[in-house]
Amino acid sequence: MAKTLTAKMLLARYVRRSDRVLLVNPPVHDARYAWIHWNQPLDLLKIGPFLKKEIGCTVALLDFMKPEKGGDVPQQRLPGDRQSRTIGEGQFAERYPTWRFGHDYEEIPKWIAAQKTREHPTQVWITSLCSYWFQSIAQVCVRLRQHFRDVQIVLIGNYPRMIPDHAVEQCPADLAVTRPLPIDGIPMDLGLYGKACPPFAAIMPHTKCAVAEVRAAVSRGVTDFAFFSEDLLSDGGQALWEIVRKTEHLHRHIKYHVICGLYPQLITPKTAKILAHKRFADLHFEETSTNYAVDVPVYEAAITYLREAGLTIPSRAVSGFVWIGRPRETLETIIQNMIALLRALGTFILKPFTPTPGSPEHSQNADYLARIPSHEDWSPHLFPFAELNGIARADYHDLYRLAAFLNDKVRGQSFDFLAGTLGLDFLKSSLQREVWRIGSTALRTTD
Amino acid sequence: MNGITLGGIDPSIVRELSGVYKPFVKAFKELVSNAYDADADHVHVRITDDFSSIIVEDDGTGMTPFEFRNDFTRIGGGSRRWLGERTRKGRLRIGSKGIGFLALARYCSTLEVVSGANRPFRLEQSLPDARPVELDQILGFAVPAGFFRRFTFTLHRSGRGASSPVKRSQYKVDAKTRTLRFEKSVSGPLHLALSFDCRNMGFRAFLNFDRLLELADKADLDKLSDFATIEFFQEKHRKRRGRTQIVAHELKSFVKRELQSERRKGYVRNIASRCGLDAFRWHLARSTPIRYARSTGTGAKKALALVTNRKELRLAELRITHAGQTTTLERPIYPVEPEALPLHDDILIPVAINEAGLRAAGFIAGYESVIFPAEYRGVVIRVRGVAIGDPSFLGAEHLLTGANKAALSQITGEINVLSGLDAVDALNPGRESFYEESEQFKTLRRNLIGDGETVSGVLASAISAVLRRSQVRSSLKDVIGRACLRRRVLDDIAAAVAELIATGAPIGQSLRTLTKRKHSQTNGLADAPDWDFSGPPRIGGLKVLDAAHLAEPVEIDYKNQVIRLDMARHEWDWTLVLFNRRLQVANKRGGPMQPLGELNLKEDTFFLNWEHPIRSQMDERAFLRTAVAWILAREAAAGDADQMMELALRLLSFRSGVADG
Known about the structure:
- The structure holds 2 protein chains of 2 kinds.
- By secondary structure, chain A is of the alpha/beta class.
- Chain A contains 16 helices and 19 strands.
- In chain A, 34% of the residues lie in helices and 19% in strands.
- The radius of gyration of chain B is 39 Å and the shape is elongated.
- Chain B folds into 4 domains: 2-119 and 199-260, Histidine kinase-like ATPase, C-terminal domain (Heat Shock Protein 90, 2-Layer Sandwich), CATH 3.30.565; 121-196; 345-466, Ribosomal Protein S5, domain 2; 478-653, no CATH class.
- By secondary structure, chain B is α+β, with helices and mostly antiparallel strands.
């Protein structure tokens, strides 16, 4: 049985200068992975240099999620009877394909064969982004044991932090880190990838090393950067502006991608000016809502500032997230939100919801969530709150189809392809009641 | 321009002889062979950008216009007969039958020849009487009036008694009518000695092949002279060495298409699939007397050493230019190809023949896989540096069947005839094949493939070596393949156990409980004799030795007759990872009465009985999977039959990868 400990304890008791540490970003087993191209183990890229510098041990990286030469991350249906799973029962039942996102487990022997030395790692640290992705972590653990006789396997990241009991009991690791090290301020080391650099670099903009990280990445040929932050403009955009100002001259093809942490209520003339900078390739707004209904005036104000700053909206580069799958939501609200953001921004992206273990949504629905057979069914793509909401999973899928339809800015006379679903009823009702004013907006059909 | 009379050609032969050289490159190589025979060191081939013409320039000894008429365009004569077997530089002449000038007749409309040489032309002829002599007739073409001063005539009265010179005043040379006239006082018979000073002059001749073939069709003997013209020109300072330029004008459309053709799309391996120009260069490099391409590979170097003859005379350089790109050709052989398979000593067979006047040296090499480009398959035989026909197996392919015949696609060879087999009657016209009645050819064939109904000789040795390697590889593939499959089974079960435990389902919890146990019940299977899975002691006659940490899973040492198997590799490991525990699988000969298997959790050992009756119902992999799955299920279920069934089925059906096994 694995032991739980903090990162500090781990370093103090288990890591030596003589250790050879292999850092692993495991593949993912899930029904869907929409943001696969933005998967980068930023924690490992910071832990690596930390270990080298502070402990002096040898560090290597094995990233299962690294894209292939063509830029795509490999994915494959799981074989045999694991290739699909049925979630829910009765009218809520839905059969989902199960995919392995990332390279297959043969990467381990390939990595071994590619090493110049025959010395195996003494420790393997496996990171995790989502707690419900534990299956692939368990598979990596067992395969590591097949190849490395005496290796010590350490789990880090959100999985052991959020559900340590599960990690200890149900994952064949040795140690589970429940409290991470404060390493945000350590510059990441893309050199862990060797000569082949990833297509982008993840940057936490509010760290002191952000500018240095961008500079180092550009020197390695990386020109795309994605900002990872809970609240990007919490400091009024100062950190963001520092980064843009100090790095825009480094390369003429530098592009910044804002894929999370951007709230429309924090858009001011000043922050709008920053975001309108030519280096920003795309902006995705987090949902701002009250009682699950989007605050349209907030979005409108943000858009006004951004247009005044010179940004063209609507534009494919600007979109807003719309949550789906939240507890006690209704389809009508979701569709209203979709239409509202479509009108305001021109494009929206559905963002499926799952509660973070330990969060208020978790504790408020603990009894309901406890009835879900396996924690891997907490994946947002499986809509864990479908039964609670009384919304069939098929209806949630229809929302994806509707989103694609609407995002193409084609508005036909009928929505027959949605026939027979609750989604259609609500949509028709919304159209009839004209819950939005249809003027010269993005809803106009473009031919 | 004046016409040239090329005498003695039967029109019906013209078309036949011109068809001897197929395809275009084989015709074209004759021009390079001519340059070689002219002692050229450097030959430069230029193809116009639009592929309409091809030009060959060489720095050989050149030709006088008389040599052009009498040697270059003389059918049936051949320079060897007139000039001897060797050139001034001692090269053995390639051209022999005197049909080379017709080689390109089918491939272009006109052949232009520009040359010159500082050699005098001499002619002696007996004149029966003192009638006027038409110089055009004896020379074969009209020498322009302006060049008549280069003539020197010496006449003697011949016949009974001592000869006496004819005085210069007794004859007159009329440059206008190109006639030699005698005074009435002169009577025959006479002996004419004529010389022409060719210094500082050149000639340009045109052979109109379209016209020639047209005339040949019409079989019009009288007009055969109309297809060729010649003109003379002064050159101020001719260098000591001559220079010849031959231009094939208006290449036929099919030739242009062939040269312009693009590389076939997709993954291609053969020369024929390359672009037309590349294929042309390759074939030309294979069929002209140039240096062998070099290589740094060990095997290739050894092969080259067997064919490289330091005394061999060859062109110093053969270059081809097209669209501004110039390539210097080197003769390619398969071992020096960039993507050639490794060449091993035991399968590189030297050839050294010194028998019945035939001396030949080279090699035959076998490879472990089919040879690509396919054009390298077969044995090339070279006489005087020029390949005779395409690579072949001298008819052995008709005697062989089955695997022996299939092995031919893995064999290549290069044989240089050092002496013998170069007589005029040893080779067919065009030098594309041998006269098989030639005794020396029979000697060559007997050494290479034998002369019975079965193939023997050097080729048989090569085939035998190739087949032996195939057998060894096949056996090893089977041995290692089975080990990999067994390992996959253990990995699958380990992965299945990890997944089931991770889900938290009841059967997973049972497995988890099992992994924590320290005790289990055993019935003595541990005491049974071991079942050895370490691999056979010999494969293909080679002894198998255990090794560790090799660069490859297996090393085959044919020289020392040993195979080294890396037993430290994962596929030979019998560890079963049970969640966070490592169990060692011990294979036993328990006999039919012993249980299928036993799990000893105290010593972390999993015993399997390979003599259990169900083993006979399934293959090795299936038995291993079944035995391990059922033993684990039984132990984990702890008496719950339903759970045991469910667990066993889940373990049996779990697969790690997409491809089963």
